[in-house]
Amino acid sequence: MKFKVKAKPTRHEIDATLAALAVRLYLENQAEAVGEPETGEIVIPKLEALKWLKTYPRRSRLS
Questions:
Q1: At 34, which helix (H) or strand (E)?
Q2: Does the first or last residue of the chain, that is N or C, have fewer Cβ atoms within 10 Å of its Cβ?
């Protein structure tokens, strides 16, 4: 089986990956603080998640 490999990821793919990693890191750091012990669900306030993502450094679109 052959796999097609892109030479370079697009800017959108890089930004999406960084955002997903940032959210995952946030979840891992906050799981104990916001987790529901009975159900195992994790609830993150939307505004808190948005504030945290805004602090993540982003590159200029020109670079």
A1: helix 11-34
A2: N
Helix or strand holding residue 33 (H, E): helix 11-34
Which residues share a beta bridge with 35?
42
Residue with the two structure tokens 């030479």? 7
Instruction: Using pLDDT thresholds of 50, 70 and 90, give the confidence band for residue 25.
Output: confident
Instruction: For 28-56, write each residue's pLDDT tens digit.
Output: 776 555 555 666 566 666 666 666 666 66
Give helix 11-34 / helix 46-54 axis angle, nearest 10°: 130
CA count, 13 A, side-chain hemisphere, 47: 0
Rounded-to-integer distance, Cα 9 and Cα 2, Å:
19
Higher pLDDT, 57 or 8: 8
